[in-house]
Automatic annotation (TrEMBL):
PANTHER family associated with the record: FRUCTOSE-1,6-BISPHOSPHATASE 1 CLASS 2-RELATED, FRUCTOSE-1,6-BISPHOSPHATASE CLASS 2
Species for this entry: Paracraurococcus lichenis
InterPro entries cross-referenced by the UniProt entry: FBPase_class-2/SBPase
Record-stated family: Belongs to the FBPase class 2 family.
Catalytic activity: beta-D-fructose 1,6-bisphosphate + H2O = beta-D-fructose 6-phosphate + phosphate
Protein name, as recorded: Fructose-1,6-bisphosphatase
Length: 330
């Protein structure tokens, strides 16, 4: 059992429940754009709503994973100060994780936020990250980013006392994963291919209901940090390595504090100390239901978790548009 410290506990607890308002606001706004074929409008609506919602949260927050640099992003840019004032925290956001799937009305889009103590998050540049993740309760190091897919599957099956054919791999459906997918299939594993949304894909390894045993493949580095924050709370192992395509990216990352471009980051190096994670479903998936709208309101489904207690909460929000502040009626 962890030590009880009433002061930090209170801050933590309240903040965790506040965070869900922020992701609910983004999801509600994005839900107007489901299936309308305009991913930028969906993303813009989510960013706008999330930014407004942060103004009601009692934190002194600094965005460290956000929508880009100040000159390219009007809101939630890296370095932006947000919140009403309160404890000093770092914030990672992806207001709409899965813009293309939202535009097409496909599954698994979420609005997501993570919070850490100052300096807790890896300052990941907006490049690709190679990722591997498995759920809780397995021997440390059972899978490794440098091992071949078939080796990782063999070790995972051994640890889970099942056959490789029982394992479900999750990855993004991308040409760059063709070799890896081929190797997994050859080894006998089953694969769930995602259109978008590897934050939800990585988290799926830690949720028994999803049937996913392992996540492999490359996706956004910022999304990697968000997923690491979630796994810190819910349990599981994850490794990530930034994938640089040119010297300019290496130099840029160096400015952000990345000293060794080849380094494999463990989960604690991506999300240190006390962290919290919240996500609200925009379109439905195995973890969260999507936003359901009616003439007078909407229903949202969210997950909130804290690393300190390991508590995972699902929150169903019933929003009454007649009583909500106009700024949040999307
Ligand atoms: C992933 C996925 C995102 O970007 O991180 C992906 O989770 C990686 O980039 O939803 P590619 O699309 O180029 O593969 C998204 O698809 C969009 O942010
Ligand atoms: Mg985004
Ligand atoms: Mg994204």
């Amino acid at each position: 059992m962890a030590d009880y410290d009433a002061s930090t506990l209170l801050v933590d607890r309240n903040l965790a429940l506040e965070l869900v308002r922020v992701t609910e606001a983004a999801a509600l706004a994005a839900s107007r754009w489901i299936g309308r074929g305009d991913k930028n409008a969906a993303d813009g609506a989510a960013v706008d709503a999330m930014r407004k919602a942060f103004d009601t949260v009692a934190i002194s927050g600094t965005v460290v994973i956000g929508e880009g640099e100040m000159d390219e992003a009007p809101m939630l840019y890296i370095g932006e100060k947000i919140g009403l004032g309160g404890p000093e925290v770092d914030i990672a956001v992806d207001p709409l994780e899965g813009t293309s799937i939202t535009a097409k009305g496909g599954p698994n889009a979420i609005a997501t936020v993570a919070l850490a103590e100052r300096g807790g998050f890896l300052h990941a540049p907006d490049i690709y990250m190679d990722k591997i993740a498995v759920g809780p309760g397995l021997p440390e190091g059972v899978v490794h980013l440098d091992a071949k897919p078939e080796e990782n599957l063999r070790e995972l099956a051994r640890a889970k006392k099942c056959s490789i054919g029982d394992l479900m791999v999750c990855t993004l459906d991308r040409d760059r994963h063709a070799e890896m997918i081929k190797a997994c299939r050859k080894a006998g594993a089953r694969i769930m291919l995602l259109g978008d949304g590897d934050v939800a894909g990585v988290i799926a390894v830690s949720q028994p209901g999803t049937g996913v045993d392992i996540y492999m493949g490359s996706g956004g580095a910022p999304e990697g940090v968000l997923a690491a924050a979630a796994l810190r709370c819910i349990g599981g192992q994850m490794q990530g390595r930034l994938q640089f395509e040119n010297e300019e990216q290496v130099a840029r990352a160096r400015e952000m504090g990345v000293t060794d471009p080849k380094r494999i980051y463990g989960i604690y190096e991506m999300a240190r100390g006390n962290v919290m994670f919240a996500a609200t479903g925009v379109t439905g998936g195995p973890m969260l239901h999507g936003v359901k709208r009616s003439a007078t309101g909407a229903v949202t489904h969210s997950i909130i978790m804290r690393s300190k207690s390991g508590t995972v909460r699902y929150v169903e929000g019933h929003h009454n548009f007649a009583r909500k502040p106009a700024a949040f009626v999307a």
